[in-house]
Write a structure and sequence with these properties.
about 0% strand; about 650 residues; mainly alpha; two-stranded antiparallel ribbon; globular; two-stranded antiparallel sheet; 21 helices
């Protein structure tokens, strides 16, 4: 895992340096590299720092953000690799002990990120964090899924050997992939959201009465909310590990769900306290050229709305992806008639699961905007992410227990232990889906807030859909998530193809491999995954990073605002449906394998026709739920934050094509 991340970071490092130079040149050239102070955007009578200073600060903070993002992903991965084996060993003593280890190590990751996000998060910082996250998520996602799909297709479907069997050459690559994609990628991604919602809030606040009067405490309100979040999550984790102990398998999922509820309730109290102490009783907020009066309780409501919307999205996601409820059981049931019906039911479930989350996001946008304009939306996004340490703990818990199962299987430990780790893992699948729900919901709010900040910084007073400039932007923007998904899905497909051929070759040519007398060549499979993901992460990354630049320079800020709105609207839908479809297929397969209910037992043991159909669904769902779905929320945020960083340049020099004609 470490060697893969280092390879990845070398490539991404080159890109970082190049992009940092770009930022400096573009932003410095706004005033022709002058060192004279210039008039401020929010108040033309006052003087602000020269463009050159802004350029230098943005460049440095961009690099800082990138480094922080790398560090948080890397540390999370280190902890996870230690935790894997420890969880397996603890499973000998029982489910409760194993749960505590897996959960605590996930929590370490959560707190790491939350604390890293508390830097002075200016826009460049968010851009750095997110661009790293994009490469981490896409590269890691391709890596883990190529190995996973390759291992499953040959091992489980063709050769009928169990999952994570040491005879399978792709098994090591598969386990490494969980750490690289699900932990390091996930970590960088949510870290990006976290840094950016702080950025969006701070950018909007800096042109409001807080910023004009230099009222520091009120300016730092977004950071106060995040800091309270860390304390609240600390308290909450104790509930899972110290106050109540998990003793049986049935208690695992409720324990993780309680985490979300407890942290949300405590956080509501925490926000009320911070809003009462940290904010003046009334203040003004910059709203498209006018200052709007806001009371402190209104701002509290904005944060609270985001917080509770996050909880709703989490629970809806759980309802659609957990095998305790009817949607997944229906999908499992459809496996009786083969893989085709399974795929149809799964897709329908994914599309249907968009409905309530979208309403939740819509309501929170309306409420927070009517109270406190764009600032309201930015703090609502922060509210949704304020319990991030808990969210990430239950998210990172999934891959850790997944690998614990893999280690148990490879070490040839008793059947009982494998059953325990599987129970931990099934709960982990659902919680990972909840984590993705959070990431997508918050990405929608964050990018809307960034969009607002972009519009105020580029000095556009209104975005009119009826003008052709904006409308073509909308259409193209809505197409981008599809183009991006096509690239990532195809990358997984082609990498998996190479992997399947290699695994088949080893089974056919290495004598004594099926009997277990000789060891397979694991290294070749790891190399296939590494090479594929490094090579394949560049085109999708370039698509996201270059689109705002090209549109801003050639078509100008109005068209760019259309592109941002379009990609936000369509990206959220695809992301929610993709990750829920994949999660549901995965858990339908686990439902049949576990055989815990009468209904599940009629669908057959492992290896029955229904089970094979379920495995095919799971394999189709893998790239959906772990590569294209979760990377889409980065696409939405990254384009918005990049446009925001370059806004002064686009406003001054953009729209070349329209100037010519």
């Amino acid at each position: 895992a470490t060697s893969f991340l280092f390879t990845e970071y070398q490539y991404v490092g080159i890109f970082m340096v190049a992009f940092a130079v770009l930022i400096f040149l573009f932003l410095g050239s706004v005033e022709g590299f002058s060192t004279k102070p210039q008039a401020c955007t929010y108040d033309s009578t006052k003087m602000c720092k020269p463009a050159l200073a802004t350029a230098a600060f943005s460049t440095i903070s961009f690099l800082l953000g990138a480094i922080t993002s790398v560090v948080s992903g890397f540390l999370g991965m280190k902890i996870a690799t230690y935790a894997n084996a420890r969880t397996t060993l603890e499973a000998r003593k029982g489910v409760g002990k194993a749960f505590i280890v897996a959960f605590r190590s996930g929590a370490v990751m959560g707190f790491l990120l939350a604390a890293n996000g508390l830097f002075e998060a200016i826009t460049g910082y968010g851009l750095g964090g997110s661009s790293m996250a994009l490469f981490g998520r896409v590269g890691g996602g391709i890596y883990t899924k190529a190995a996973d799909v390759g291992a499953d297709l040959v091992g489980k479907v063709e050769r009928n050997i169990p999952e994570d069997d040491p005879r399978n050459p792709a098994v090591i690559a598969d386990n490494v992939g969980d750490n690289v994609g699900d932990i390091a990628g996930m970590g960088s991604d949510l870290f990006g959201s976290y840094a950016e919602s702080s950025c969006a809030a701070l950018v909007v606040a800096s042109i409001s009465s807080f910023g004009i009067n230099h009222d520091l405490t009120a300016m730092l309100y977004p950071l106060l909310v995040s800091s309270i979040g860390i304390l609240v999550c600390l308290l909450t984790t104790l509930f899972a590990t110290d106050f109540f102990e998990v003793k049986t398998v049935k208690e695992i999922e409720p324990a993780l769900k309680k985490q979300l509820i407890i942290s949300t309730i405590l956080m509501t109290v925490g926000i009320a306290f911070v809003s009462w102490v940290g904010l003046p009783s009334s203040f003004t907020i910059f709203n498209f050229g006018v200052q709007k009066d806001v009371k402190n309780w209104q701002l509290f409501l904005c944060v609270a709305v985001g917080l509770w919307a996050g909880l709703i999205i989490g629970f809806v996601t759980e309802y659609y992806t957990s095998n305790a409820y009817s949607p997944v059981q229906d999908v499992a049931d459809s496996c009786r008639t083969g893989a085709a019906t399974n795929v149809i039911f799964g897709l329908a479930l994914g599309y249907k699961s968009c409905i309530i989350p979208i309403f939740a996001i819509a309501i929170s946008i309306f409420v927070s905007f009517s109270f406190a304009a764009m600032y309201g939306i930015a703090v609502a996004a922060l509210g949704m992410l304020s319990t991030i340490a808990t969210g990430l703990a239950i998210d990172a818990y999934g891959p850790i227990s997944d690998n614990a199962g893999g280690i148990a299987e490879m070490a040839g430990m008793s059947h009982r232990i494998r059953e325990r780790t599987d129970a931990l893992d099934a709960a982990g699948n659902t919680t990972a889906a909840i984590g993705k729900g959070f990431a997508i919901g918050s990405a929608a709010l964050v990018s809307l807030a960034l969009f607002g900040a972009f519009v105020s910084r580029a000095a556009i007073s209104s975005v009119d859909v009826l003008t052709p400039k904006v409308f073509i932007g909308l259409l193209v923007g809505a197409m981008l998530p599809y183009w991006f998904s096509a690239m990532t899905m195809k990358s997984v497909g082609s990498a998996a193809l190479k992997m399947v051929e290699e695994v088949r070759r080893q089974f056919n040519t290495i004598p004594g491999l099926m009997e277990g007398t000789t060891k397979p060549d694991y290294a070749t499979c790891v190399k296939i995954s590494t090479d594929a993901s490094i090579k394949e992460m560049i085109p999708p990354g370039a698509l996201v990073m270059l689109t705002p630049l090209i549109v801003g320079i050639f078509f100008g800020v109005e068209t760019l605002s259309g592109v941002l709105a379009g990609s936000l609207v369509s990206g959220v839908q695809i992301a929610i449906s993709a990750s829920n479809t994949g999660g549901a297929w995965d858990n339908a397969k686990k439902y049949i394998e576990a055989g815990a209910s009468e209904h599940a037992r009629t669908l057959g043991p492992k290896g029955s026709d229904a089970h094979k159909a379920a495995v095919i669904g799971d394999t189709v769902g893998d790239p959906l739920k772990d590569t294209s779905g979760p990377s889409l929320n980065i696409l939405i945020k990254l384009m918005a934050v990049e446009s925001l960083v370059f806004a002064p340049f686009f406003a001054a020099h953009g729209g070349l094509l329209f100037k010519i004609f």
